[in-house]
Give the backbone structure.
Amino acid sequence: MSENPSLSNLLKEERRFAPPAELAAQANVTAEAYEQAKADRLGFWAEQARRLTWATEPTETLDWSNPPFAKWFQDGRLNVAYNCVDRHVEAGNGDRVAIHFEGEPGDSRSITYAELKDEVSRAANALLELGVRKGDRVAVYMPMIPETAIAMLACARIGAAHSVVFGGFSADALATRIEDADARVVITADGGYRRGKPSALKPAVDDAVSREGTTVEHVVVVRRTGQEVAWTEGRDVWWHELTQKQPAEHTAEAFEAEHPLFILYTSGTTGRPKGILHTSGGYLTQVAYTHWSVFDLKPETDVYWCTADVGWVTGHSYIVYGPLANGATQVMYEGTPDTPHQGRFWEIVQKYKVSILYTAPTAIRTFMKWGDDIPAKFDLSSLRVLGSVGEPINPEAWIWYRKHIGGDRTPVVDTWWQTETGGIMISPLPGVTEAKPGSAQRPLPGIAATVVDDEATEVPDGGGGYLVLTEPWPSMLRTIWGDDQRFLDTYWSRFEGKYFAGDGAKKDDDGDIWLLGRVDDVMLVSGHNISTTEVESALVSHPSVAEAAVVGAADETTGQAIVAFVILRGTAAETADLVGELRNHVGATLGPIAKPKRILPVGELPKTRSGKIMRRLLRDVAENRQLGDVTTLTDSTVMDLIQEKLPAAPSED
Ligand code: 6R9
């Protein structure tokens, strides 16, 4: 064990950004919300639950008599799809656009709440015709098209839990997830458009459901690309044929607040994927509240765009459930940011006058690499709030985002949360918080999070350790599907009575929280725990570096040595001088202990399909080991290129 088990707290950030006065004056949430929630946490959440329309109002907020198995609003009854669709039509907002869909080839389509109600009702009737009933599971394996949201809402409407599997996953991954959830029906498409051409989805489904003992009775296929598909009579059915003949009326039945809403598998780096179970009333309460408060949503005037894929939790909570529960107008985009050109995102912002944009650090760093001149060609003046999620956002990327996308005007909210937390947990509030680039700052009102050391003792301001959540929250996972023991072992056994998030974190001198990456990635160098995130942020703050990934590799003298993989910016040349300069830059920024032993310029970094850097594989390379599982990589050839470079790279010794 190290002498100093806590993470060292190296990165200092002095820049501050006050909320714009105009936004602060009309903000949905003021600083009082923190006080109110602190004085009466459960009362605060009971009040937020009143944003929803309940068939039976809950009288009990939280049953925590059998921790960590929480029951929120358990005697309340509601229908989630009714809350996301029908009630907006009943309130007179049926003509409001729910979804502006932009296809990658340039086709577009706008769907109002009234139209969405008809489509969801037809799809719900269609699922009933196929024999799907309350309590069943339906797998959804789709591109980013409106039918994906419609299918999810149709499941919710009839009380069947959906299990969305990201369309980029293989037949094997799909088969494992179908099997674990015992899905009866798979909803898919012939394909979707990606990088300028149609990519197929149906063959993977055919493969997955042809395996022995499959529970799947029907495959419903949306026609998106028009490509040829193999067909199994009796099992396969076209979405349009099935839904068009259904009535557009369907009476939504109310279910218990704790009725399962969905299962979403987290790939994890090791072991079987975990089926994270979310339920209805608490989940919808928190995603609606956080979408409204964190983005300062004004549903009458804002145009919101979250660039995530619906296959990830960000798409579930902040494309489907949060925005639709709030009656928002949003953009949904099918494709990639560089198809047909690198300004595609900004063209979409300009076209729909997007006012709230929610994207990921990996995308922001890519835009930085492509150059400031690209967003500068578009009118981005409609933007008023920018959000970030998925990884720590390096201070330089934060500054770039605010300056080049937000016109030096918009707040940037760095939102920390997980598939397991269901909704945003730690984030600035755009009308309240004085923002610090790189920090998610404070737990939201009603949320209790802190940083503890190995002994579960809360660290003082200025200290580092592990992020924990110390009180239950409405959108928390209820268990791992079919495996309560694994739920207990993974999240609730490391620190008694506290949820262990698996992330390293520190508190700065003001008590603000900084996320420092997964604890498995933390490096131990000469007895000091150093976070990969801090060293990466230091590297990215050098003008020649676009992206960086840092790992600790076994080292005879220091235990672990820091090895950095960097992507250089357009014009920077890969020379020994530059490598030396980068090493010194890190030393000057963080201190000599954090100087990387080796720095390797590379063309690409290995990333998961949701855009997170896979340091585990880089560690394998740095330690000359056989590569571990590469199946969750977006592009596995990246690793070959990186491995080829390694022997030639200069090292300090
Ligand atoms: C929403 C989502 C969860 C993990 C989480 C953490 C990382 C997400 C972050 C962040 C630093 C942020 N993460 N947001 N790290 N700052 N704002 O991404 O869910 O796919 O389950 O990943 O992502 O490591 O533990 P999920």
Q: What stands out?
A: The longest strand covers residues 545-555. The chain has a mean pLDDT of 94.
